[in-house]
């Protein structure tokens, strides 16, 4: 079964017809040619497909495209304006928070989403005081970024990059 | 025996040694770098495989009618209708060519469809019938059919013996068995390929590969093609760790499919689950280590005997005990490797094959010996430091700096003063301890590398070689080497890699890339300057091959020291690693920024092996049960706290013109042993089986 949907991807309006079984990730990658979000596991276990979906970080492999008609999607590509990088992307380069680069767009989107969550006072598993302001300690950053796996082991550099932006 | 060390013509370092930012950094943080599956193609066909559901047997029937009837299905391939291949020299690539099934999960069919969803759905509709034969998928060191392979991976001899280990004088003996599990490489980018059979005999592959020429050669052989008409393109690769070093069955399946739909690109990405049976893994090992020593800790005997598995389909013999031939010396030494040939997927390279599992056993045994002798583990290692390579008698290229690494690491880590008493440091519910282990990895230099330098109209130098960057930093570091070889700024170098149409290059494996490719780039740059001098005309071009072995007779190995602090929860058995430090001796470091990342990355993979990773193969069915990231946990951000790497400032004047020895693998070697030794220091419990999960502590007396 097919359905017509419209997505707003990195500022562009994109209309398409999708098989209702198509994940948001496959719609972006295979139908729209938007390949910044990566497929690492297709099960929501690795975070490589993370984008900002209506402003919040989301794993696009774990949701169907048809459920997001009208949604706004921002990928790592869209976080930058041409060669002008988002501060999180700049910090990833400054701290070498990547090696193979495959998990990186997801890490970047996750970091941007996470910083907003922390700024809004959302607690995490390691937040001592459940109410009010969240202090982004290294422990908080590591906990909040643990949905994004990196097999190259760039974690210490990723944490350093996010720490710098959070400061 | 010659022991002459010839000093090579070293580069003058300007760009080399500078912590340049990654050249491919911007396109990676924005997600614009195209990985294999992302190359734009028109009218793609999607492939989804059908996998055997028996571990051994024969296909007796294939009912593809329901699949073929599904709208959007283009073709269903099985052994009955698949195009014929030419060579079965590599049995792993002999796909859909016979009815034989050698392991559960083996490809027995493929659906080609207009969309991913239809291909996957249709693959589920294919009904295969099997004659199910008894299978054998359990590694047990007591088996009576273990055999000695002719040769080990990387060409090492299977067994060695010197003196008489059993008759060696010994005041102290450590005689223990250590086990490491099956582990899977699990690069973040699943193995993926786009295959286009453009016209008969002409094949284009966008691939996720560690070696474009290696894959090209394997497929040309298997399909009887002219290698000159096969092109493999891999500009960006999302990790590999060995699993993308060779052509695997999915390559062959994609080419068969491409032949079935000529002119249309076939897209095939393995699922994470399929990666657990298709692209290699680290064999489980059972390692019997025996160390004998005098009361003051001088080794009199070293024995390291290994049992591991290989596949019925194809042999892979991991060189697990090779490290014990050269780490320390003793008058009586013995190593051996025995294989169980099982009905399982084919094991292969995983980061530091041999050294990674072998040095776990060897370096935990050394820690046990230190405890038994009442010696500091660093002092024990220093007392057993060989002056020359125990295997060849030759001196080490660039010297052997293991003890310096240990001492420098001890200073930085704050090793001293250390109370060696285990199980006495408590911080609330946490038991605290520290551990150390040595690292080593050989300097591999692979043959068959050629590079071209060309002067372009924009006043830059194109440097061409079919190398790849799998996250190692090649785009950056090879340009640094080229810049110094041409004596120009890095900005004047335009590097081209990742394409088999470029000059021949060896695989990104065995930590050999910079040594092998870099030597070719330097040779080409020198040939260019010799011919054209400093003012070349536009279009000037020179090519050259890397020399075979520049430095004469020496042993070429890197060394390192790994330190770990652990906290073990006394109630739950959870192990945390708040701090790790590695200090390495690896020759000249080309780029300190990317090098530090590579060292740390190796150490984190070692931490992951120490605490988390184990592929659980159910011998009743022959498949890996925990075949995804939910059940096969790799270290996540929260598992990694304070990890740092440092290195000795040195130049290996015999290794190659860069003075480097390669750093991709040494970081993982010794890391699990350092953590296991720290766990013993924290708890008094000696865990000899990886991974060190809470059950292994709780059932050994933690509670």
Automatic annotation (TrEMBL), chain A:
**Domain of life from the UniProt record:** Bacteria
Recite the lineage of the species: Bacteria, Bacillati, Actinomycetota, Actinomycetes, Streptosporangiales
The reply on keyword Iron is yes
Keywords from the named record? 2Fe-2S, Iron, Iron-sulfur, Metal-binding, Oxidoreductase
GO MF: 2 iron, 2 sulfur cluster binding; metal ion binding; oxidoreductase activity, acting on the aldehyde or oxo group of donors
Database matches in Pfam families: Fer2, Fer2_2
What metabolic or biological pathway is this protein involved in?
Alkaloid degradation; nicotine degradation
Q: Which organism is it from?
A: Actinomadura craniellae
**Protein name stated in the entry:** (2Fe-2S)-binding protein
From TrEMBL, chain B:
Is this entry keyworded Ubl conjugation?
Answer: no
Domain Aldehyde oxidase/xanthine dehydrogenase a/b hammerhead spans what residues? 30-134
> Which superkingdom, per the lineage?
Bacteria
* Keywords carried by this UniProt record: Molybdenum, Oxidoreductase
Any idea which GO molecular function terms this record carries? iron ion binding; oxidoreductase activity
Record flagged with keyword Disulfide bond = no
| Record protein name field | Xanthine dehydrogenase family protein molybdopterin-binding subunit
Recall the taxonomic lineage recorded for the source organism. Bacteria, Bacillati, Actinomycetota, Actinomycetes, Streptosporangiales
């Amino acid at each position: 079964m097919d359905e017509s949907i419209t997505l707003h991807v990195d500022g562009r309006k994109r209309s398409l017809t999708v098989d209702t079984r198509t994940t948001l990730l496959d719609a972006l990658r295979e139908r729209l040619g938007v390949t910044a979000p990566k497929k690492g596991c297709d099960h929501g276990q690795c975070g490589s497909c993370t984008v900002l979906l209506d402003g919040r970080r989301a794993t696009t492999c774990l949701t169907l495209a048809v459920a997001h008609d009208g949604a706004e999607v921002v990928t790592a590509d869209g976080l930058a304006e041409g060669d002008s990088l988002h501060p999180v992307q700049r910090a990833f380069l400054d701290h070498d928070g990547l090696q193979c680069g495959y998990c990186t767009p997801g890490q970047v989107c996750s970091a941007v989403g996470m910083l907003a969550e922390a700024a809004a006072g959302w607690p995490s598993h390691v937040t001592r005081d459940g109410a009010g302001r969240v202090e982004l300690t290294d422990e908080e950053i590591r906990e909040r970024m643990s949905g994004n796996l990196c097999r190259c082991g760039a974690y210490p550099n990723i944490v350093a990059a996010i720490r710098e932006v959070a400061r | 025996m010659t022991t002459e060390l010839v000093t090579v013509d070293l580069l003058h370092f300007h760009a080399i040694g500078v912590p340049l930012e990654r050249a491919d950094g911007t396109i990676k943080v924005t997600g614009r770098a195209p990985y294999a599956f992302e190359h734009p193609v028109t009218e793609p066909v999607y492939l989804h495989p059908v996998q055997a559901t028996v571990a051994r047997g024969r296909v007796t029937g294939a009912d593809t009618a329901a699949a073929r009837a599904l709208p959007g299905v283009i073709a269903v391939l099985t052994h009955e209708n698949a195009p014929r291949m030419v060579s079965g020299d590599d049995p792993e690539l002999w796909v859909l060519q016979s009815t034989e099934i050698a392991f559960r999960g083996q490809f027995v069919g493929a659906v080609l469809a207009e969309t991913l969803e239809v291909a996957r759905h249709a693959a589920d509709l294919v009904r295969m019938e099997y004659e199910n034969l008894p299978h054998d998928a359990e590694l047990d060191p007591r088996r009576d059919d273990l055999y000695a392979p002719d040769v080990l991976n990387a060409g090492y001899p299977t067994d060695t013996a010197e003196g008489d280990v059993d008759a060696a004088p010994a005041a102290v003996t450590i005689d223990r068995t250590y086990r490491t599990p099956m582990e899977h490489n699990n690069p973040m980018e699943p193995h993926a390929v786009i295959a286009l059979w453009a016209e008969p005999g002409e094949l284009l592959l966008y691939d996720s590969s560690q070696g474009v020429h290696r894959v090209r050669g394997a497929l040309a052989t298997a399909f009887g093609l002219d290698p000159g008409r096969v092109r493999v393109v891999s500009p960006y690769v999302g990790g590999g760790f060995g699993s993308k070093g060779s052509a695997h069955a999915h390559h062959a399946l994609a080419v068969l499919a491409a032949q079935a739909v000529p002119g249309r690109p076939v897209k095939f990405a393995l699922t994470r689950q399929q990666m657990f049976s298709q692209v290699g893994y680290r064999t489980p090992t059972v390692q019997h280590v025996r160390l004998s020593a005098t009361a003051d800790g001088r080794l009199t005997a070293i024995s390291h005997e290994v049992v591991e598995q290989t596949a019925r389909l194809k042999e892979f013999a991991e060189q697990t005990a090779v490290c014990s031939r050269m780490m320390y010396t003793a008058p009586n030494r013995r190593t051996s490797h025995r294989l169980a040939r099982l009905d399982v997927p084919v094991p292969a390279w995983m980061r530091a094959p041999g050294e990674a599992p072998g040095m776990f056993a060897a370096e935990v045994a050394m820690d046990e010996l230190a405890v038994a002798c009442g010696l500091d583990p660093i002092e024990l290692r220093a007392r057993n430091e060989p002056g020359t390579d125990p295997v060849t008698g030759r001196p080490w290229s660039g010297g052997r700096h293991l003890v310096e690494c240990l001492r420098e690491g001890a200073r930085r880590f704050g090793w001293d003063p250390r109370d060696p008493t285990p199980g006495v440091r408590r911080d609330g519910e946490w038991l605290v301890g520290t551990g150390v282990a040595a690292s080593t990895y050989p300097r591999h230099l692979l043959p068959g590398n050629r590079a071209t330098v060309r002067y372009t109209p924009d006043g830059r130098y194109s440097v061409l070689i079919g190398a790849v960057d799998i996250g190692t930093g090649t785009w950056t570091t090879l340009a640094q080497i080229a810049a110094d070889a041409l004596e120009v700024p890095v900005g004047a170098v335009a590097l081209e890699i990742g394409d088999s149409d470029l000059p021949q290059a060896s695989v990104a494996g065995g930590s050999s890339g910079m040594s092998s490719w870099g030597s070719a780039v330097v040779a080409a740059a020198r040939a260019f300057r010799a011919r054209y001098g400093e003012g070349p005309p536009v279009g000037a071009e020179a090519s050259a091959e890397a020399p075979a072995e520049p430095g004469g007779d020496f042993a070429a190995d890197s060394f390192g020291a790994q330190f770990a602090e652990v906290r073990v929860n006394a109630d739950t058995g959870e192990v945390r690693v708040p701090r790790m430090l590695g200090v390495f001796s690896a020759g000249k470091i080309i780029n300190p920024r990317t090098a530090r990342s590579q060292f740390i990355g190796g150490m984190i993979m070692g931490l992951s092996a120490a605490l988390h990773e184990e592929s659980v193969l159910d011998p009743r069915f022959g498949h890996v049960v925990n075949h995804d990231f939910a059940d096969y946990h790799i270290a996540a951000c929260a598992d990694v706290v304070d990890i740092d790497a440092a290195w000795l400032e040195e130049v290996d004047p015999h290794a190659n013109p860069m003075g480097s020895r390669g750093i991709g693998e040494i970081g993982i070697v010794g890391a699990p042993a350092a953590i296991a030794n720290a766990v013993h220091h924290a708890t008094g419990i000696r865990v000899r089986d990886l991974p060190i999960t809470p059950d292994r502590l709780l059932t050994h007396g933690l509670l």
